[in-house]
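It is worth pausing here to work through a concrete case rather than discussing structure prediction in the abstract. The textbook approach is simple: state the sequence, then state the predicted structure, then interpret. We follow exactly that order.
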Amino acid sequence: MTVETTPADLGEAPDGARPAPGVVATAAADRTAATRRGPRQLGVVLRHPSLVAVLVWLLATPVAFVLPGIVGKDPFTVAGRALPVAGGLLLVSVVLAAAAAARRWVPAALDALAGAAAGLAGAWLVLVLRSALYGTPFGFGGLSGDMLRMTASVTRYTVTTASADTNIVGLPSEYPPLYAWLVGRASVLLDQPAWRLLADAEVLFISASLLAGFLLWRRQAGAWTAFAISCVAVLAWSDPRKAYEVLALVIFIPWVLETFARPPRNRLHWLSSGLLGGLLVVLYQAWLVYAALGLMVIIVLAWRAEPDRWAYVRRLAGVALVATVTSSWYVLPYGWTLLTDGGGQLVSDLYTSPYYLSGLLPFLDIQSSDGSNILLRALQLVGMIGLVWLLRRAWWAPPLLLIAGAAFAYRLLSMVRFLLTGHTAFAHYTVRLYGVVLAIAGVLTLVHVVPLVLRRLRVAPPVGLVGAPLAVLLAWGVTAYTGAWMPPSNGSGSSYATAAHAEPLPGGGYPRYAPASGRPAWFPVEPVRLAVEEVTGPDPERVTVSVDERLFSYLPWPGYLSNDRTAGGTLTHWDERKAELTALAAQRDPAAFAAESAATAYGPIDVFVLTRDGDELIWEDLRFQRAQFDERYWAVREDLPAQVAVFVRR
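Step two, the predicted structure:
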């Protein structure tokens, strides 16, 4: 017999909803009765744990943000790591003690306490990440790899409000722009350098991800179940460098269930679903792409089961329309340029990640040296089994299985394409999607199955035992997350946090706790800026070729092309621009060089920032000659630190 899981099967009834008769646990009935006996004003608050979560998060987050600076511990030491661990375990103890007391004296307060726990958990994420970055102005990863380009994008949005390519003026962004746009515009509003705000944005977006997960899952699940899901989702994958991707992923999974599937409670209003859909597109649209095949099947299955199929179609049309309008400032300029500019040149997915074959089946990946991920892998395995076993018994199982299956299918098909063409289609990112889905499914499976098993065995567990699994999960989460993202202590920790402390400051020197070894060389950004502005005046708009792209992370100057081919956008025509630069390097006549560099097929190059090596001037694999830069045409500065030379068109 098919049994559909209701919200009560996932815990208590959602905010404002009446529990379905016959499926509410005795504890839930006791809490409902206590609510009726309590004061009316208290009952209003207790029925809205989502509101409690938001209020607690707003109050606790500023405290967590400033606490590492007040304590002032070196994050590379055991004492530095002790702050988030002690704070996290203390919060776990307080929450569990409060839950035990509430269960005995004020049962109706239990759901509100779950909301408070969600707000505190989000604030604790701020505590651990700010502790990891204490002493450095940089975000995780410093200014290397993807973070180099994200910082440059953030800086670009300090001088424009339209969708914009990271380097090239006049081109719209290919990458979803909202995160960089928000940080860039906040920089203007707060009158702070954009690169200094990126670390704060990483911390706040990760924290908000847990809160957003709780708010969305609370609509269909009990408060404590929603709390467990939101914690597990962040623990399963929450790279602070990709904080916007984390937020998008946490929103995406419940959004699919609420928008396309058939949850037991009313779906999100089509306007809300459309706004969230548009948000996903401008925040990080890859999750939609990876799950596209599964979404199609979910829609067909839901449409066939709908009593009013045309109403469902109209709903989807409304969602699509709102999402399109919401994301049009990004999608339309990019699409139009792609259509009118010959289709561009896709080179970004030619980079082969060393992790391309990692995590194919995440629940089998138990190679962590400290074993900290074993609990997560076990939960993902439970989720995989539960999705198959409960396929016809739980409303959430089919859509979650389709999301995970579609992402895995995308990865397999992309691997075949990779063998044929060399394009990766960024398939290795799919594990982030189906890994989180399996972890969430693990929580839902346990919540569904354990009570059934206990009833079948006629076992009544002690009251205190109910919170034991959650206590273990939270305690493990505190230690595992701290160990993953704090800098190394006794040889283990986050290399991305280390990079944040090792990154040289723009004016020279290093952050307070920079490690003695592994420091990147300083690039003299300030001397370069001064040398250029001596010729152009402040805030130059001259197109620049720079040997080090950290220049664009600090200064919103237009560039000619990115230094890394696989970092070039489809619209930038990277190979063609590189060919123009190669031809210039081969032009030995100074007058011809000056004329041709002023009129390349993609516009002028007015500033060259190169590395000196004798009479040669280096940019990546190209070698220019000093004689090419005749001082009749170029203002020359060769006295800058770090063997950097600057040439500015007169």
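Step three, interpretation. The chain is about 55% helix and 5% strand. The CA atoms of residues 152 and 552 lie 5 Å apart.
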